[in-house]
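Hypothesis: this fold can be encoded by more than one sequence.
Test: take the structure tokens below, design a sequence, compare later.
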């Protein structure tokens, strides 16, 4: 069944003060606030988060901000797709009731010197290949949590390491927000929906689907008893045989710690991958169980 369409007009804010005043009115009237943070270039994965918030009975609000603090590559920031008008239409039809779309000057009124350290959690996987990335994520999410003061916040499983980082700041900084991590929404061929997918040409797009196919095959092989070393070698060979994919990492990690050097229980494992297809960097993951 198709998701419901909402006719009610979505309110759009670009300044923190008016947004806070509006949300205070909603809270005073007894409404719970559900936040969906985004960076725009939206797709069905984002709308699934909005719909989950609406299903929980939340007054559903979204942020749309391309956060420069989490890009360690200026070229990647410059190429990030942006289409505010299309994003507003999609969010409104999905049921978002208020949107916060600030510019950089509103979010960073002065140069920020705040840095986060997450121990080993941000030294592996994405943290290893994108130094400083998660500190920038934590900074902007902390800002958004302080601006919105939501009761619940919704995130996608595709960015699993990011969700673990956000869970840590939620606990350590006593935000006490109920966090939800929803399943990855995929294309019919299995490719995880991502804002970056629009940058793939048709040939690259076809090869990109092999990331999920190889994750699935690797999980099946592990469950049949094949060693991780043999599974990884086979997957790496498959992925790189076309010459179209440059693998950054393919790892089997503990779901709780994301450490790759110790996994006592295969059932608590998760496969994580990052690869550059053409010139586009993609990530994905798949729990073993």
């Amino acid at each position: 069944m198709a998701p419901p369409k909402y006719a009610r007009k979505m309110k759009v804010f670009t300044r923190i003060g008016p947004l806070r005043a509006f949300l205070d009115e909603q809270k005073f009237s007894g409404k719970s606030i559900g936040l969906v943070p985004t960076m725009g270039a939206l797709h069905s994965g984002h709308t699934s988060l909005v719909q989950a918030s609406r299903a929980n009975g939340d007054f559903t609000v979204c942020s749309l901000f391309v956060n420069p603090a989490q890009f360690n590559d200026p070229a990647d920031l410059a190429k990030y797709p942006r289409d505010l008008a299309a994003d507003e239409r999609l969010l409104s039809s999905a049921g978002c009731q208020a949107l916060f779309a600030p510019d950089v000057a509103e979010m960073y009124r002065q140069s920020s010197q705040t840095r986060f350290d997450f121990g080993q959690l941000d030294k592996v996987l994405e943290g290893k290949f994108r130094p400083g990335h998660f500190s920038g994520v934590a900074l902007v999410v902390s800002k958004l949590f302080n601006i919105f003061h939501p009761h619940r916040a919704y995130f996608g499983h595709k960015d699993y390491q990011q969700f673990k980082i956000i869970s840590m700041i939620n606990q350590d900084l006593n935000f006490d927000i109920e966090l939800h991590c929803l399943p990855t929404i995929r294309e019919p061929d299995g490719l995880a929906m991502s804002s970056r997918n629009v940058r793939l040409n048709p040939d690259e797009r076809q090869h990109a689907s092999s990331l999920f196919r190889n994750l699935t095959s690797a999980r099946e092989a592990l469950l049949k008893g094949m060693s991780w070393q043999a599974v990884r070698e086979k997957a790496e060979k498959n992925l790189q045989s076309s010459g179209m994919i440059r693998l950054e990492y393919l790892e089997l990690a503990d779901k709780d710690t994301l450490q790759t050097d110790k996994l006592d229980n295969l059932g608590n494992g998760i496969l994580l991958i990052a690869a550059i297809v053409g010139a586009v960097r993609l990530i994905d993951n798949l729990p073993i169980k």
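The chain has eleven helices and nine strands. The mean pLDDT is 95.
Hypothesis status: open.
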